Amino acid sequence: MTSPSPSASTPRSEQAPGAATPRHAPHELLGLTSPAYGGDYNPEQWDEATFAEDLELMAEAGVNLVSLGIFSWARLEPREGVYELDWLVEIVNRLHEAGIAVDLATATASPPAWMATDHPESLPMNADGVRLGLGSRQQYCPSSTVYRERSAALAAALAERLGDHPGVVMWHIGNEYGCHIAECFCPACARAFRDWLADRYGDVERLNAAWGTDFWSQRYTSLEQVAPPAAMPTFPNPAQMLDWRRFSDHQLRSLMEAEARILRQRSTRPVTTNFMGDFPATDYWRWAEALDIISDDSYPDPADPAAAHEVAWAGDLMRGLAGGRPWILMEQAPSAVQWRRRNSPKRPGQLLLWSLARVAHGADGVLQFQWRQSRQGAETFHSGMVPHAGRDSRTWEETVDTGQALTRLGPVLGKPVRAEAALVLDWESQWALSTAIGPVEVGERFEAARAWHRSLWEAGIATDIVPVGRSLEGYRLIIVPAVFIDRPALAGHLERAVAAGAQVVVVGPTGVVDVNAGAVLGGYLGSLRPLLGVWVTDHAALTGQVQQPDPRGALVNRLSRAVGTPAAETWTGLEAVSEPLRRVLDRMGTPAPDLRAGGWAEELRIDEAPEEAVTENTRAGQGRQAVEIVAVFDGRGGGADLAGRPAITRRTVGGAGAGWYVAADLDALSRAALLTLVCAHARLRPVVADLPDGVEAQRRGDILFLLNHSDRAAEVAGVVGTDLLSGQSCTGHVIVPPRSALVVR
Ligand code: GLA
Ligand code: ZN
Q: Does the structure show a pLDDT above 50 at 533?
């Protein structure tokens, strides 16, 4: 048996990303006097007359920024090594003359046909070994030498020609890296994976130790034997999967970083690449470090009642990725998309309302995909700011309204959102959780984090989203939802925050595996155990899978009909033990609602004696108290075997701070009840109290956004100032019409 050396168990690439690079606010970098407004502009689809009309329409709509050239490679380099850039320069010139700035793409998102036909090895390969062909977009392998060389050369050619052009204000590297091809299983990627592993582990024995290859006879005798986790007989090794995720992320990121370096050598303009919210394949905490401006593409479904939460979630995440600074919405749909099974248009007013919601959550620019709706191609029926119908259409009218509204929001630029609640988000933990075989079934998109963020949002609490490695100083409430990898650095930050009086709510499954996907031994929660005073011994999934294919069988199956199967339930009941939590529930209705959880529950053990030792994180005289049981499983539903066991606990440190642990997948009502109690301890107030249903409030600096997502006019009291949108003054009661907003200063 070989045990991993310290360097193998804590590899370099695992360390916290570190402080964000100093960045200026986007409005300074882009020279904005009001939020950026515009969209993807793909003029190569159109003739001269249309281009001339575009300039007029852009002026009418208040467009001040367009993203140009994102899918122009085939026109810019029609034959390998032969560039035709004049047409693009001409368009930049004319946009500049018209006062429209350009976010210039490096045009490397979709290679031209010649790359596929002359260099077929540049095409990506799926897990079944199939090369994916030409005819859509993004058909490149991220390890392909020719793709790397040609994309670098194109970025350089563009930067040399247009890097100092006064009309170019920002670089747009690639487009939505990984959107279609986030991993490639071709021989070049297998080679690159082995090189990456060699760099990470040094030798094959360290890899064997990290991956636990003594199980299932997976031991390697040479790194050359290791392959990507392509099609295989059954479950892959989770450590291999986790490293594959890291590698695939690294491979894409290295493409973006290579282009960023090339641009910076030739141009002083800031660089961005458009993120996709909480896209699962890319650890955007790492990506953000290489960018000057954070930008996002976001397509909430107008048919989803939680769509406005999607806007808030993505916005808070982007602000977090930007280190608290503003960011740019790079793409949203002017109305419907075309890629869902059913594509709902935005409802009247929703384009402006959601645009303002983006700004409320920290965006200093709102761009759409795309300026003019395509007449041909795969996105013909994706809305555009200029729709097929032309100016005489609701989409155009709302495009103009939105642009006009944004021109009045100059005072918002650069203003920070101040949140006292934080939610910890860790991409690697999500990878480890979703590639683990068990213990609980989760999706790919941070389900627990989204659920807790939504509860905070519904409660009106402004929230930051932060990575595991960052100091949590200054936050009064910190939620740690399903951070599956045990992160000692996070535990340290949390202990310091609690010692300073913060409420920390840890939600399972957290601290279950190490950085190599190996189980934490001696009780899950790992390094969080001293803070919380509890540890997890078992996970209990509630499967909701009742095995009853033959309902009349119970009449005759004397043996099996007597067997209890609580795990076949989809929910479990909890009982509030703490008097304050009972009071919260009492206030929520008559009769008071009960607490429930679904999906999974955990079996907890409690550290009996309070820990007397004062660690470096708890000041003298501020020792940890005994663990208080806030709620227990009450035996209803799937929790029968957990009856009476702790489900929610709290350990106070010093006088005020506390570490709470939640050992179940609480439903929305139970989360809301618990947060009411925790927020009271944290002395945390909503941005605006007692708002009517459907109304969201957010603040940026001295500016208050009142966003009415509902279908009814809403009355809000105590609003004083000037509505920047209408210019009207507010002197107390205001009426916010349905699906509209006030921006009050
Ligand atoms: C993504 C892409 C765009 C476009 C939109 C359509 O965001 O970046 O090029 O395809 O989807 O919704
Ligand atoms: Zn490949």
A: yes
Q: Is 678 exposed, middle or buried (0-12, 13-18, 19+ CB in 10 A)?
A: buried
Q: Which residues contact 589 (CB under 8 A, 6 or more apart)?
A: none
pLDDT of residue 616 exceeding 80, the answer is no
Is-contact 476 503, C-beta < 8 A? yes
Chain centroid offset of residue 488 CA: 23
pTM: 0.95
- pLDDT tens-digit series, residues 649-696: 999 988 789 999 999 999 999 999 999 999 999 999 999 999 999 999
Q: Which residues surround ligand 2, an ion (CB under 5 A)?
A: 141, 143, 184, 186, 188-189
Alpha-carbon distance of 94 to 144, in angstroms, equals 36
Closest to 617 in 3D by CA, of 524, 508, 528: 528
Instruction: Give the separation between CA 18 and CA 467, rounded to whole angstroms.
Output: 10
- Using CA atoms, how far residue 165 sits from 93, 102, 108, 175, 548, in Å, is 9, 10, 20, 22, 70
Distance between Cα 369 and ligand 1 center (Å): 6
Q: Residues lining ligand 1, CB < 6 A?
A: 175-176, 297, 299, 331, 333, 337, 369, 379, 382
* CA-proximal residue: ligand 1, atom 9 (nearest): 369
Burial (Cβ within 10 Å: 0-12, 13-18, ≥19) of residue 575: middle
Residue 468: both structure tokens together:
């595991």
Which of the two residues, 474 and 654, has the higher pLDDT score?
474
3-state secondary structure of 2: coil
Peptide bond into 439 cis (omega under 30): yes
**CA–centroid distance, residue 142 to ligand 2 (Å):** 6
End-to-end C-alpha distance for the chain, whole angstroms: 66
Residue 597, CA atoms < 13 Å, CB-side half-sphere = 32
| Cis upstream peptide for 591 (omega within 30°) | yes
